[in-house]
UniProtKB/TrEMBL annotation:
Keywords: Cytoplasm, Schiff base, Thiamine biosynthesis, Transferase. Coiled coil: none annotated. The keyword Zinc-finger does not apply. It comes from Pontibacter actiniarum. GO terms for cellular component: cytoplasm. It is an enzyme of class 2 (transferase). This is Thiazole synthase. It comes from the Bacteria. The lineage of its organism: Bacteria, Pseudomonadati, Bacteroidota, Cytophagia, Cytophagales. SUPFAM superfamilies: ThiG-like. It is found in: Cytoplasm.
């Protein structure tokens, strides 16, 4: 499996992970280590950066983990830029997962505010990875303002409904000049493998691992699924047909009778 480069970092794992919904910090740490993930997103609003014993941050001190602060909870571009600056100061990283979803019921991203915030954050020197609808036009606009990757949703956050936006993801992947990370809605390892087979550069998974009955085992399953999906993509899948094609001659052996 080829490594993935985003901005100035190279990742051997194409499985990115979240830190929400785990029953404990210890369980989160064990699952993330089992996943092999090298990029871990964390909501700034959920951590106490002044507390060395913070239940999330105290478990993320492993050298393989690169932290990706996110702006979950903000409602517009102005709040997102403010949160990003706080995150950069607190966590000493200019990487940012930009999330703006004003509707608390469906948590769908606001495309207008996201584009506005991304443009300003890039100018301020941030490495911006925006969470967005699977909108090919918006992805190109974000690419033009200088984001480091795009993160289109497969289906609503935490829904575990898989790639409901598959047709649009295919267009995004085909057109994109920056890495495409499928985020949200990936509820099973097979969903992750499907995204990777389509040609996604990575996937981000949180809920499906955190709420499973055995998070460590599920994390391993996602790790294997992402690797399998990427290997299949690189090996090139066989064409799909509507009629049967025998894998060996049907009648040749009869000619010898």
């Amino acid at each position: 499996m080829t490594p993935l480069t985003i901005a100035d970092k190279t990742f051997n794992s194409r499985l990115f992970t979240g830190t929400g919904k785990f029953s404990s910090g210890q369980q989160m740490e064990e699952a993330l280590l089992a996943s092999g993930s090298e990029l871990v997103t964390v909501a700034l609003k959920r951590v106490d950066v002044q507390n060395e014993q913070d239940d999330i941050l105290s478990h993320l001190g492993h050298p393989q983990f690169n932290l990706l602060p996110n702006t979950s909870g903000v409602r517009n571009a102005k709040e997102a830029v403010f949160a990003a600056q706080l995150a950069r100061e607190a966590l000493e990283t200019n990487w940012l997962k930009l999330e703006i979803h004003p509707d608390p019921k469906y948590l769908l991203p606001d495309p207008i505010e996201t584009l506005k915030a991304a443009e300003e954050l890039v100018k301020l020197g941030f490495v911006v990875l925006p969470y967005i609808h699977a909108d090919p036009v918006l992805c190109k606009r974000l690419e033009e303002v200088g984001v480091a990757a795009v993160m289109p949703l497969g289906s609503p956050i935490g829904s575990n409904n898989g790639l409901q936006t598959r047709a649009f993801l295919e267009i995004i992947i085909q057109q994109s000049k920056v890495p495409v990370v499928v985020d949200a809605g990936i509820g099973a390892p097979s969903h992750a493998a499907e995204a990777m087979e389509l040609g996604a550069d990575a996937v981000l998974v949180n809920t499906a691992i955190a709420v499973s009955q055995q998070p460590v085992q599920m994390a391993k399953a996602f790790k294997m699924a992402v690797e399998a999906g990427r290997m299949a993509y690189e090996a090139k899948l066989a064409p799909v047909g509507v009629t049967a094609h025998a894998s060996s001659p049907l009648t040749a052996f009869l000619d010898e009778l």
